[in-house]
């Protein structure tokens, strides 16, 4: 009898140990990493305080393509809308690039044949390969697109992109933009594509905001001219994004990439009411969002007259602004100065296909866990808008666009396995829905 009792005790102990081990194992699968182990946004409190409720306008409140909305019309501010690809949310913005080209549409590959960028230190640069990628088998990316190395001018590609963005539930695509005739160092001018992007977005109930890129000679005056050009040319389009405050005032919203390249004293001439060529109160007044990279930039952004700041980079720890642990402090600074804080989250980061010396900034996707950790960090600071870096920045491996396994004689590309090509679109939708579920409670 004593022996039987001893065996029963041992069995009970082993069973208890098994249950404990199983529970601890399941715990490691959650995107904790210093953040809440609860479901997305579960710990967020229904708090809005005295902060202005800046919300986007639905398609129902905007004009159709090329049609002007009557002055003084009563527009209703909403956070979401129904599109052909499901519910979409206008407080989830996603960065979008139209710099790709292929022989079929453009006579040659553009950007897919990206150069291997040399390190600025000649001693380090000498240790790494130089040259240019040779599509379609060898492209300037670590993942391979399901649509193959495509052209941004291909109408079928554009339609597929809008469908995918709609499937992700992101309601606003933030279009990388250069003035007419200008482009990045590895691309060609693409401003003439804007109408096609707007029309395609409109068909899917999506909105388009503009991401003003740095170009030679960019300053406060040239950006003022850019804003006039964009609003005059596209401001009446049904897909042109406007941000609406709780007072009912709707204004365009612009992201200014690498805004720190221009001193705050210059920006203030454009963005403060007393500036020499102030945009405030004019027909071109807008919401201007600056990039925060270093901690000191938050003071420069405030002094320059900007309306808020975003972080862009998908590599946690790469910069002060992109480090999740700093978002709470940045949000507190913004709240204290009536600025909008827009954290940027991404599924991972790897740019060694074009910067082979930059592997220390690689952030592995871990089958989506890195992305979910970043999304949780964003929700923890209760933002008004979240930006996704990116839909299709393939060079830096931040894309959520569909990717497929690919192996060539010389390369093996990364992929989303064991998940399918839609994995990151699906994750984005899941978190966008949770984000807005929580926001409904804050706004009650």
Structural features, described:
With 444 residues, the chain is α/β, with parallel strands linked by helices. The protein has eleven helices and twelve strands. Strands 1, 2, 3, 4, 5, 6, 7, 8, 9, 10, 11 and 12 form a twelve-stranded mixed sheet that branches. Helix 4 (155-168) packs across helix 5, helix 4 packs across helix 11 and helix 7 runs parallel beside helix 8. The longest helix is centred in the N-terminal third of the chain and has 26 residues, at 2-27. It is globular.
How is this fold's topology laid out?
Layout lengths: L1 H26 L27 E2 L23 E4 L2 E11 L6 H4 L15 H4 L29 H14 L1 E8 L16 H10 L3 E6 L7 H15 L7 E3 L5 E7 L7 H8 L15 E5 L5 H8 L3 E3 L16 H10 L3 E3 L1 E2 L23 H12 L5 E3 L34 H20 L2
Parallel strand pairs: 3-4, 3-12, 4-5, 5-7, 7-8, 8-9, 9-10, 11-12
Antiparallel strand pairs: 1-6, 2-3, 6-7
Gap between N and C termini: 65 Å
Give the tally of β-strands. 12
Work out the strand percent. 5-15%
Biggest sheet architecture: 12 strands, mixed
Order of helices and strands: HEEEHHHEHEHEEHEHEHEEHEH
Q: Give unreliable regions as ranges.
A: 22-64, 67-77
Percent helix among the residues?
Answer: 25-40%
> What's the assembly state of these chains?
single chain
Number of helices: 11
Which shape, going by the Cα principal axes?
globular
Structural class: alpha/beta
Radius of gyration, in angstroms, nearest whole number: 24 Å
Estimate the mean pLDDT confidence. Answer: 86
